[in-house]
Design brief:
Blueprint: H1 2-55, H2 62-77, H3 83-95
């Protein structure tokens, strides 16, 4: 009878250990899912921040643009810039508006 009782206790203990192991695995899977979701959210937040930064890149104000055009015109008059270079800089400046 002792042998049979020992087997029953061992069987119950084995079931209990298996149940704890299964529950621990479920908890670990849930934690991993939370980590994955957090990483996805962090990546999305970084992308959104980068996009917002790009959109907020300051465009030159009209006053700064006029000053820059005047500076470029002076460089062209002094012969430092060619007409072609002046036009390229002017086009670039105006395209940043």
């Amino acid at each position: 009878m002792r042998f049979l009782g020992g087997m029953m206790i061992g069987s119950l203990a084995g079931r209990h250990a298996a149940r704890r192991q299964f529950e621990a695995m479920q908890a670990a899977q849930a934690q991993q899912e939370q980590i994955n979701q957090a990483q996805t959210q962090a990546a999305q937040a970084q992308q959104m921040a980068k996009a917002a930064q790009t959109q907020q890149a300051p465009n030159p104000s009209k006053k700064n643009m006029v000053e820059e055009l005047e500076r470029l015109a002076n460089l062209k008059q002094q012969g430092i810039l060619t007409e072609e270079e002046f036009q390229q800089f002017k086009t670039k400046l105006l395209s940043d508006i």
